Amino acid sequence: MYKHAGAGWSIRPFTAEDAGACLAIFRDCLTDMPWRARNRGQYLILRRALAPPNAWVAVEPEAGVIGFLTIQSVQDYIDHLFVDPDWRFCGVARGLLEVARQSATGALSLDVDEENLGARRAYEALGWQVVANSTAASKARQMRLVSP
Ligand SMILES: CC(C)(COP(=O)(O)OP(=O)(O)OC[C@H]1O[C@@H](n2cnc3c(N)ncnc32)[C@H](O)[C@@H]1OP(=O)(O)O)[C@@H](O)C(=O)NCCC(=O)NCCS
């Protein structure tokens, strides 16, 4: 288990009991992402992705689940990374990505919405590199990033 000694949270594998808390964090985060409001399928996609052994949660004793990550393990592709707005800038995303990196066979990759400036800055701070921009043919305007 990954534990942040100073901040008191830790990271463990996702279990079915965590699904409600993860969906609540996802819903909270989406309120700051108006460009995703019409994406009705995204809750179903998240429900499918939240399955052991391809998901982890960050938990704090008082607050419960404070963040989560899901990965498509064959491609080492991160398809969700969401941190409770009250727990941002505490290293939770860094910790979740580190745990995912340890389980991966190579570099991690993900797609970030072009409008998502906060996440883009976070990945930049973490040393991720842009390897491709969305093409005109793709539905969402996203950037493909790879981990250091
Ligand atoms: C992006 C997100 C996952 C970052 O989570 P977090 O737990 O706050 O990130 P961390 O605390 O681990 O920060 C990692 C680094 O990124 C930086 N960072 C994080 N958010 C940032 C922001 N909005 N602006 C600038 N830098 C940021 C931190 O300062 C830190 O860098 P440092 O170590 O040099 O100080 C979180 O803001 C979030 O859940 N956003 C909404 C959902 C989302 O956009 N997910 C990504 C989808 S691709």
Account of the protein in words:
The chain is α+β, with helices and mostly antiparallel strands and 148 residues long. It has one domain (2-106): Aminopeptidase, CATH 3.40.630.30. The protein is 28% helix and 29% strand. The strands form two sheets. The chain has a five-stranded antiparallel beta sheet, with helices on both faces. A three-stranded antiparallel beta sheet has the order 6-8-7, covered by helices on one side. A hairpin with a 3-residue loop joins strand 3 and strand 4 (64-72). The two termini are 22 Å apart. The site of coenzyme A (COA) has 20 residues, from strand 5, helix 3, strand 6 and helix 4.
The CATH superfamily appears as Gcn5-related N-acetyltransferase (GNAT)
Principal-axis shape equals: globular
Total strand segments: 8
What strand order characterises the main sheet? 1-2-3-4-5
CATH architecture: 3-Layer(aba) Sandwich
Structural class label: alpha+beta
Q: What's the number of helices? A: 4
* CATH topology descriptor: Aminopeptidase
What does the largest sheet look like?
Answer: 5 strands, antiparallel
Brief characterization of the structure:
This protein has helices spanning 19-30, 42-49, 92-103, 117-125; strands at 2-3, 10-13, 55-60, 64-72, 77-83, 109-113, 129-133, 142-146. It is α+β, with helices and mostly antiparallel strands and 148 residues long. It has a single domain (2-106), classed as Aminopeptidase (3-Layer(aba) Sandwich).
